[in-house]
Write a structure and sequence with these properties.
With 150 residues, the chain is α/β, with parallel strands linked by helices. Helix content is 20%, strand content 15%. The protein has 4 helices and 6 strands, in the order αβαβαβββαβ. The protein has helices at residues 57-60, 80-90, 97-102, 133-141; strands at residues 75-79, 94-95, 111-115, 125-128, 130-131, 145-148. Strands 1-3-5 form a 3-stranded parallel sheet. Strands 2-4-6 form a 3-stranded parallel sheet.
Length: 150
């Protein structure tokens, strides 16, 4: 065996049509692009969702209601593992809005939500705008308290 008689494994190479390679190939002349028009020329493209002039699905479906993003409540989230990391690093016992703003963890007008990812071992007093049930149980199990702010 040498390089002259190597062949790819059977079925590993798929036969494909090489279009635009002359009349003898059967895929010459218009090369599956059709006659005339922008689509037959190079550099053409269509917009996403274009259905050949038919009314696109997105425009055919009815639209109902309106969700105003200006009234959406956005929270900055803190998980229990992040709180535990802060406790270990900075020896924090109270976690409130003023302390978080002072340490640039949140901005002044942000609302804080505590989530339950991770484990909390330290006893911590937390003031937050919202809290998940799992986080609340974990905080109380560690001997801490969580107080909801307005």
């Amino acid at each position: 065996m040498d390089l002259s008689n190597l062949k790819p494994a059977s079925g590993s190479i798929k036969k494909r049509h090489r279009i635009g390679r002359g009349q003898g190939s059967g895929w010459g002349e218009t090369s599956k692009r059709g006659f005339k028009g922008a689509g037959s020329r190079s550099g053409t493209s269509t917009k996403r969702g274009f259905e050949g002039g038919q009314m696109p699905l997105q425009r055919r479906l009815p639209k109902r209601g309106f969700n105003n993003k200006n009234f959406e409540t956005k929270y900055v989230t803190l998980n229990l593992d992040q709180i535990q990391e802060m406790v270990d690093k900075y020896e924090i016992t109270k976690l409130d809005q003023d302390m978080l703003v002072a340490n640039r963890i949140i901005k002044g007008d942000d609302k804080l939500k505590v989530l339950g990812r991770g484990e909390l071992k330290a006893k911590v007093e937390i003031w937050a705008h919202a809290c998940s049930e799992t986080a609340q149980k974990a905080i109380e199990a560690a001997g801490g308290t969580i107080t909801m702010i307005g």
